[in-house]
Design goal:
- 30% of the residues lie in helices and 35% in strands.
- The protein is α+β, with helices and mostly antiparallel strands and 159 residues long.
- The chain has one domain: Gcn5-related N-acetyltransferase (GNAT) (Aminopeptidase, 3-Layer(aba) Sandwich), CATH 3.40.630.
- A seven-stranded mixed sheet has the order 1-2-3-4-5-7-6, sandwiched between helices.
- α4 crosses α5.
Length: 159
């Protein structure tokens, strides 16, 4: 289940953010960044990912509304204990359907680390396809620059 991120989610997500299996991919999830996510921005929506009523991860969507480049993007992370159970795929699919069906986007993007094979497999299950490698795209938790993989999905490709 996904629901809008709330102040009550911050403490649990800070715990999740400290897990090595999470922080390797999302190193800056702390109380300050979560408070900013709860406060929101006009083009960004943040969600708690829940299973059996417990917060198990976080997701964000952003929307580019410039008519010449209109599209939306997704980002998410799950607590280590909840990975490899299909919950990430379900969350990505749910967000993708929302962005396509309710928000009217024809194209979605996602940009995992190029060496995050678990995430890439998850996104491919929903219909995302690799577009290309973005060299030295993001600074990793180790302080060095890492490649990212740009992936996109057209509305008709959503599985």
């Amino acid at each position: 289940m996904l629901r809008t991120l709330a102040d009550a989610d911050v403490a649990r997500l800070v715990e999740i953010g400290r897990e090595p299996g999470f922080s390797a991919w999302w190193p800056d999830l702390d109380a300050a960044s979560l408070a900013s996510m709860v406060a929101g921005e006009p083009s960004v929506s943040s969600y708690a990912i829940l299973s059996a009523g417990s917060v198990i991860g976080v997701a964000q969507t952003y929307e580019e509304d410039d008519p010449e480049y209109r599209h939306a993007g997704i980002d998410l992370g799950l607590a280590t204990a909840w990975q490899d159970q299909g919950l990430g795929t379900d969350a990505v699919r749910t967000l993708a359907r929302h962005l396509v069906r309710e928000r009217g986007h024809h194209r979605l993007v996602i940009d995992p680390a190029a060496h995050n094979h678990r995430a890439i497999r998850c996104y491919e299950k929903v219909g995302f396809r690799p577009v290309g490698v973005m060299r030295m795209y993001e600074r990793g938790a180790d302080g060095t620059w890492h490649d990212g993989l740009l992936m996109d999905l057209l509305a008709a490709e959503l599985r």
